């Protein structure tokens, strides 16, 4: 995303239904900030979404205008320290479900059975969201390798709010029903009384997962302790669509550095990385192998 002259941008037409004025210049400043801090590229169609999500922050903080909020987010060190993560959390989109894009899980199970007898497998879910995806991976691990498995999953996300939900492991029963009756009985505890209609994942699952915040744009993340050893496979589905092509390439290179040769990369249905064959080769529907 190239720098643009804010003064050349037209002001948005006033909207009498809005609590705060939100100009074209305000939106462009938000775009620059979220791109610099999280690598997310917002297109023009996201203006209403940005207004809706950030206006909640203005109310919480008692700030009267977007320009004041953004001024402080750009130059007030103490405010930046306190608010930067909330800003990123507000603009992060989290769409997930148990066993979403189900064609990936038989491929995962086959890989686990093939390599499970080797040294402890290390898996990584790089967009954990509220936990449905990492717990789906761990259920597949247990079904493929058995309860005595030494395989472990690292589950990360840039949004600290959704990670807190993931750690709790509590979901509506109708959402967990997507796991199927057999998995529901084996891996979940049903709520009673005031918790009727809710389920919690069993310790059998949570003991295999380490949840941690991680910004894929941070230059030093590959040197963190979690990656002291290379991982065997990575789920990073429907994440790269929020990045521009230079940022995608940067992250793919870093991923290639932490995935062992022959390891797998699972991506989203609308993503395609066949232009990066020196790093990853397509081995199935949205499944790549580290070469």
- Which oligomeric state applies? single chain
- How many β-strands, per DSSP? 10
Q: Which blocks of ≥5 consecutive residues have pLDDT under 50?
A: 1-14
General shape:
globular
Question: What is the strand arrangement across the widest sheet?
Answer: 6-2-1-7-8-10-9
Overall pLDDT: 89
Number of helices: 11
Cα separation of the termini: 30 Å
β-strand percent reads 15-25%
Name the helix and strand elements from N-terminus to C-terminus, one letter apiece: HHHHHEHEHEHHEEHEEHEEE
Radius of gyration: 21 Å
Helix content: 40-55%
Structural class: alpha/beta
The biggest beta sheet is recorded as:
7 strands, mixed
Can you summarize this structure?
The chain has helices at 24-38, 47-61, 66-75, 77-91, 104-115, 132-145, 160-168, 173-176, 181-187, 203-206, 245-258; strands at 122-125, 152-157, 170-172, 188-190, 198-201, 209-213, 231-235, 259-266, 280-284, 287-290. It is of the alpha/beta class and 291 residues long.
Describe this entry's structure for a reader.
Helices cover 41% and strands 16% of the residues. It is of the alpha/beta class. The strands form 2 sheets. The protein has a 7-stranded mixed beta sheet with strand order 6-2-1-7-8-10-9. The protein has a 3-stranded antiparallel beta sheet with strand order 3-5-4. Strand 9 (280-284) and strand 10 form a beta hairpin. Helix 1 (24-38) runs parallel beside helix 3, helix 3 (66-75) crosses helix 4 (77-91) and helix 5 packs across helix 6 (132-145). It is globular and about 60 Å long.
């Amino acid at each position: 995303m190239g720098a643009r002259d804010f003064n050349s941008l037209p002001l948005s037409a006033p909207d009498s239904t809005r609590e705060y004025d939100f100009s074209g210049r305000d939106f462009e400043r938000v775009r620059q900030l979220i791109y610099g801090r999280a690598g997310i590229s917002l297109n023009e169609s996201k203006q209403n979404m940005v207004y809706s999500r950030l206006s909640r922050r203005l109310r919480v903080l008692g700030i009267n205008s977007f320009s004041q909020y953004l001024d402080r987010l750009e130059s007030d060190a103490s405010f930046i320290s306190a608010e930067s993560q909330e800003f990123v959390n507000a603009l992060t989109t989290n769409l997930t479900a148990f066993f979403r894009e189900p064609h990936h899980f038989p491929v995962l199970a086959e890989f686990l059975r093939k390599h499970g007898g080797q040294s402890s497998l290390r898996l990584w879910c790089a967009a954990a969201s509220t936990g449905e995806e990492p717990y789906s991976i761990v259920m597949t691990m247990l079904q493929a390798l058995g309860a005595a498995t030494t395989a472990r999953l690292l589950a990360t996300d840039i949004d600290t709010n959704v990670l807190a939900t993931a750690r709790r492991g509590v979901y509506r029963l109708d959402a967990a029903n997507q796991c199927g009756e057999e998995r529901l009985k084996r891996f979940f505890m049903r709520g009673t009384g005031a918790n009727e209609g809710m389920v919690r994942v069993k310790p059998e699952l949570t003991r295999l997962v380490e949840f941690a915040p991680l910004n894929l744009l941070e230059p030093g993340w590959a040197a963190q302790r979690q990656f002291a050893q290379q991982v065997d496979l990575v789920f990073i589905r429907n994440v790269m669509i929020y990045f521009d092509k230079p940022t995608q390439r940067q992250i793919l290179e870093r991923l290639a550095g932490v995935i062992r040769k022959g390891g797998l990369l699972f991506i989203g249905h609308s993503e395609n990385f066949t232009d990066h064959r020196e790093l990853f080769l397509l081995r199935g529907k949205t499944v790549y192998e580290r070469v």
